[in-house]
Design goal:
mainly alpha; two-stranded antiparallel sheet; 111 residues; globular
């Protein structure tokens, strides 16, 4: 299931981190998913928020730039909202993975 975090900017947009978004972030930050998660949770800079936002919105608009996203955030959100939206969207991206860790699928014992 694709999980989306809705955000009202210039229009309603859908913040989503799919495979392409995470690959873009890995390339920008020079680390894997675990490193990105640690950076988002512990050492996020304002420039990181803008990069992450941009990667999460590009599935709707591939021409979107980080500078444009900064303008959208400045015009429509406060800093706390922007940070919380990024954290919510990241959590939503791994919702199914976290659920499987809590409730692993039953082993298939059929021959």
């Amino acid at each position: 299931m694709i999980r989306i975090t809705k955000v009202q900017l210039d229009r309603e947009r859908n913040l989503r981190f799919g495979f392409r978004g995470f690959i873009e972030l890995e390339n920008k930050f020079g680390c894997g998913i675990q490193g990105i998660m640690e950076r988002v949770q512990k050492d996020m800079r304002m420039s990181d928020i803008a990069e992450v936002f941009c990667a999460g919105l590009k599935h709707e608009d591939r021409d979107l730039t980080t500078d444009r996203v900064i303008d959208l955030i400045d015009a429509h959100l406060d800093v706390g909202e922007a940070v919380n939206l990024v954290l919510d969207a990241f959590s939503a991206s791994f919702g199914d993975l976290n659920e499987e860790e809590k409730n692993p699928p039953a082993a298939n014992l059929s021959p």
